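[Q] Does anyone have a clean structure-token version of this?
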Amino acid sequence: MNAKVQSVIDYFTGTERGRKAIEVWFSRAGNMIPRLKPILREQGVPEDLVYLAMIESGFRNDARSWARAVGPWQFIYSTAKIFDLEASWWYDERRDPEKATLAAARYLRQLYEHLGDWYLAIAGYNCGEGRVWRERRRSSSKDFWRLKRLPRQTRHYIPTFLAARRIAE
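[A] Here you go.
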């Protein structure tokens, strides 16, 4: 818990817009979390990573980003292929909650093994492993909170994840 996380908690609990967003997310969570947590557990990653899908897509299987990332875990086409998700004009496994969760767990575990820290792995999931490596090397730090030149979205990603997890608890 720090000021950045508290600021996101205050947004989600203290503003109308934030409350509406988190309420919609949690309305979907009751169906999704029990389906996804066992997959994360079986893959040896923290079950709390399920809240990444919440902040990525609001647990929407039909979510689509400006970067053409799709599904609850917001996989782009190239990453989906690496983690064995079929994505064609006919069928897109990125939209399948269980298959996408399995791929996300494998990807997050790989990021953790390469970067050595769950916050860095989560940051790598958001902006790319190479970007995190370069910033780690530039700043001479393995502490996410000291990496000041990561993209703004990534700097806010971890506090948003931690806030969502805290509110869920």
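[Q] Thanks! Anything notable?
[A] The CA atoms of residues 94 and 100 lie 5 Å apart.
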